[in-house]
Amino acid sequence: MSRDAEVIDPETDPKATWALEPDEVAPLLRHVVASPANGTHVPRVPFTGAPLAAVPRSTPDDVAAAVGRARAAQRAWAARPLAERAATVLRFHDLVLDRQSEVLDLIQLENGKARASAYEEVADVALVSRHYGRRAAHYLAPQRVPGLVPGLTGATVLRRPVGVVGIVAPFNYPLVLSVCDALPALVAGNAVVVKPDEQTPLSILWAAELLAEAGLPRDVLLVVTGDGAQVGGALVDAVDHVVFTGSTRTGRVVAQQAARRLVGVTLELGGKNAMYVAADADPALAAETAVRASFANTGQLCMSMERIILHEAVADAFLAELLPRVRALRLGAGLDYGSDVGSLTSQAQLARVQEHVDGALRHGARVLVGGVHRTDVGPLFYEPTVLDGVPPDAPVFAEETFGPVVAVYRVADDDAAVAMMNDSEFGLNASVWTRDVARGRALAARIDAGSVNVNEGYALSWGTTAAPTGGVKDSGLGRRHGAEGIWATTWTQTVAYHRGAHRGLGLGRLYALPDEQWTALFTRALRLMKRLHLP
């Protein structure tokens, strides 16, 4: 671990504040629905604890007003041609890439992550924007299906927007987990109201401003801020589909609220993701990926690896490659690419990390590297940590840590590895390392996780925007990306039609037959359709 990381002195270093000027924030705040009488909330820069910017606070009444405005704007937006809506998203794509330095600063200042991790958000927004800008017409195209009577009847399935989509976004990916859920909903013709985490509202406000510049009409995307239980709960009670990313405990509450109103939900919840390094894996390549997959975004990533399961034949060689790489990671606070690992975002996250590491040690585990709260770098920095010998009764064994902590375990064979990977209440993401890709794909098919990466950690599945991603078991419900990601914000309408009704071939004449004759005739027709291999 680098011990000469940049240290910021709040008394002498101008970077200690990084406070935004009111005129910098004012253009963004026009997208917030909140009464001035409600007061403000001031997020603090995780690097230093200094105040960042004052953001108005919304109330449940403001949520109702926001959803009402969005609902009114949605009708005109949905009436626009799909090609026009898609073009707006593609213009947004270009603006994000052109002005990425602005949002990279905002993401770092409100979340505390390293700049390379912040760039992952920019890249993901570009991938999702391009994908739905190009593929939405295919996903939403009317689908012709066979009718009841082949040749005489048919049906077309239409996809129509649900109306207003509510997004309750977390702090760990403030841009991606708000705007990337909004984009498919917007292209489908919905309006969107976003409730970001109180610590990280500026990234989505920046995105809302850019979407307006790209041509998104007023009120089609609005932001409400404030307490998660009150403001987020009011949003769930008002919209037509809910997208929630967060803890499993809160996800259950959201699902219950939505169920009472019979509206759909997309839930991405917790994970205790595992990476298996098989006996034939290249230890150096697997270790390189393990570092990135475990400590990117300071470990505050629901798809990151928190368990590394090693075949005993490769365990020592893998650890010999892994530990020096972890020690070499640079901690630092700076709006540049000078550090590898940033700060945790909140005191609560730091406390959870410390609790899990200390609890593991009390239960007999060993720290192979890390395990230190780095107050010399900043108030919320914690060294990337690798644990060994964690017993099942330690909280870190099964609970999500959501920080820069990973534990290693040893197994005798592939079957034991799969069993250990599946022995979890979660099922979000997994990784398998092997030189034999066919073998890796076969192992992946046995793992209970919504996505499995062969010879990668999380980037392959997450970045494949044409494929759905999401969790099973306690890791969630519904899917992001691909067709499922945009279909979730639509409802289907079947339009069935009869071509021969006005030529004397209507079904009415069949129904006019005596019941016995009608059933005998229809039974013969059913047998014929099967012989003709009709669907």
What would you note in describing this structure?
With 535 residues, the protein is an alpha/beta fold. The protein folds into three domains: 257 residues, Aldehyde Dehydrogenase, Chain A, domain 1, CATH 3.40.605.10; 195 residues, Aldehyde Dehydrogenase, Chain A, domain 2 (3-Layer(aba) Sandwich), CATH 3.40.309.10; 26 residues. Helices cover 42% and strands 17% of the residues. The chain contains 19 helices and 20 strands. The strands form five sheets. The chain has a seven-stranded mixed beta sheet, sandwiched between helices. A six-stranded mixed beta sheet has the order 7-6-5-8-9-19, sandwiched between helices. A three-stranded antiparallel beta sheet has the order 3-4-20, with no helix packed on it. Strand 3 and strand 4 form a beta hairpin. Helix 1 crosses helix 7 and helix 3 packs antiparallel against helix 5. The longest helix has 25 residues. It is globular.
**Helix vs. strand class:** alpha/beta
Ranges where pLDDT stays below 50 over 5 or more residues in a row are 1-8
In CATH terms, what is the architecture of the largest domain?
3-Layer(aba) Sandwich
CATH topology of the largest domain: Aldehyde Dehydrogenase, Chain A, domain 1
Query: How large, in whole angstroms, is the Cα Rg?
Result: 26 Å
Give the mean pLDDT.
Answer: 94
CATH superfamily (homologous) name of the largest domain = Aldehyde Dehydrogenase, Chain A, domain 1
In percent terms, what proportion of residues is strand? 15-25%
Spatial strand order of the main sheet = 12-13-14-11-10-16-17
How many DSSP E strands?
20
